[in-house]
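Researcher: We're teaching a course module on how sequence relates to structure. For the next exercise, students receive a sequence and then see the predicted structure as tokens, so they can try to spot secondary structure elements on their own. Here is the exercise chain.
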Amino acid sequence: MKTLGVDKVYIDRMSGKNTDRPALQKMMDYVREGDSVIVESISRFARNTKDLLELTEELNSKQVQFISQKESIDTDTPAGKFMLTIFGAVAELEREYIRQRQREGIEIAKEKGKYKGRPEKRLDTFDEIYHQWKKGKITATFASEQLNISRSTFYRRVAEHEEDSKPIDF
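Model: And here is the predicted structure for the students to work with:
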């Protein structure tokens, strides 16, 4: 970027999968008419077509030029705008392929018994806190705080506990 004469560099150490990135937001707030935004690659700027087009449209409305080094795209030309849309769609497709392969890998690992998900949190004092809650001595909110879990997790554990505690009828 220094060889291009860039005087201000913004670096996000986050994925380009969404626009909620501090450096990106800072840059979008800073740019003004006549500036140029130069990115190494479109996929580092935005991973889905919608975000890419929204960001570049915002830059266009501020009369800011967008240039992608890797794809040699310059949005000052109609062909550049068209190519931006095409490359944005390809980046989005690539992201979806990654997600799909990840889901497939998890399913295969589950079938082999190698993937069991996140381990269940041990709640050594659950029975004691459950009985206090059941007797109305404490609230569910207080119980979940004592166990360091969310209220919805507390209720789910209560349901599991009560299901396990039911006598079996023969």
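Model: If you want an answer key for the exercise: The CA atoms of residues 28 and 58 lie 8 Å apart. The chain has a mean pLDDT of 85.
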